[in-house]
Design brief:
This protein has 261 residues and is mostly helical. It has one domain. It has eleven helices and no strands.
Amino acid sequence: MNSFSSSYYFALTGGYTIGLLGWWIANRWKPGLWNAYPEYHFLHPWWDTLWAFLAALVTIAIGQLYTGDMLLPKGSIVDPVLTEALNQMIIFSPFIVLLIVRRQPFTTAWLSSRHLPERLVIGFVLAIAAICVFMLIRQPSDALGTILGNVYHPKNSGYAAQILLEDIAIAVVFVRFRSAVGAKWFLIVLIAVAFLFSASHYPAKLSQGLSFMTATRDVIIDGALVSAVIYVLQRSKDVVWFWFIHFAMDMMQFYTGNTSL
């Protein structure tokens, strides 16, 4: 791994880590902001898990239509930025349809209106902290104000919608799978999957010229980070605060050098 990719890799890990730690501190400070609703009990959790996976397959199929320019063409109805957001809503609509058809509350997608303004503010503050940590490690040429202006520019609304809907979709699957297998096995299985997925990158990492020890270090860090994200999200039962961090870190890929959006 060259210095460019290495610094970006650790900057991304640092950003997510400070975001997760920030949530833990916020939860200790204001514990009533999260888990403020009773846990939903599915009558047939395995069936609901199957329906969630089917929604994921339909979403992937619609995504293929989008890739082939078979959804709303840019600027065909409204501004191109809003058209992109609408396309993302179409792509991920199977998950919303699932909630409606199964008559299940949005809390089963880790969405709640309770204390929403406070959670939005905390998510935004944590995202800014994550960006600052990213910059300390990566040291891009652009100033903080310039980066924030680009990251939160209205033209990125489509990206923001996509990331939020991705997080909601993942929550829909996770909540049902967790109900089916139980909280203990849910974490064990997903942590195992996280490390196995990370380990699957061994060939690619070694082909890049990394030593076995360096590749192993990266695999462990990746697996631990994904496991930490899963653990914290199922503790908070909330995708709103994490969406801010997820969006910010995805946007920071444009600041690995001198590139601006």
